[in-house]
Amino acid sequence: GSDASNRLVPPSAMDPDAGNANAVATDVQHVIDGTSWKKSSRDISIAGIGWIGIGVSGRCTINVRTPKGKGTVATKPRDQALIPDFAE
Length: 88
Known about the structure:
Layout: E1 25-36, E2 42-46, E3 50-54, E4 56-67, E5 72-74
Antiparallel strand pairs: 1-4, 2-3, 2-5
């Protein structure tokens, strides 16, 4: 079968410890507030992997685990999401 999990890893060139099994993985917590499931409230980017749009009605907490907690960022609430309406 096809297992995508071995392809969704940040390149070690971004962080020398990224490919090191002994690197400490740390959660980065993003709290997202939104008003609709039908549009993106915020985007979260993960270095070397890409980004995801989060649509939520209310509040949710997303934990992203990366080596040393580096390489992840959420857009600020006032910024427009990359794909603001993903329900269409």
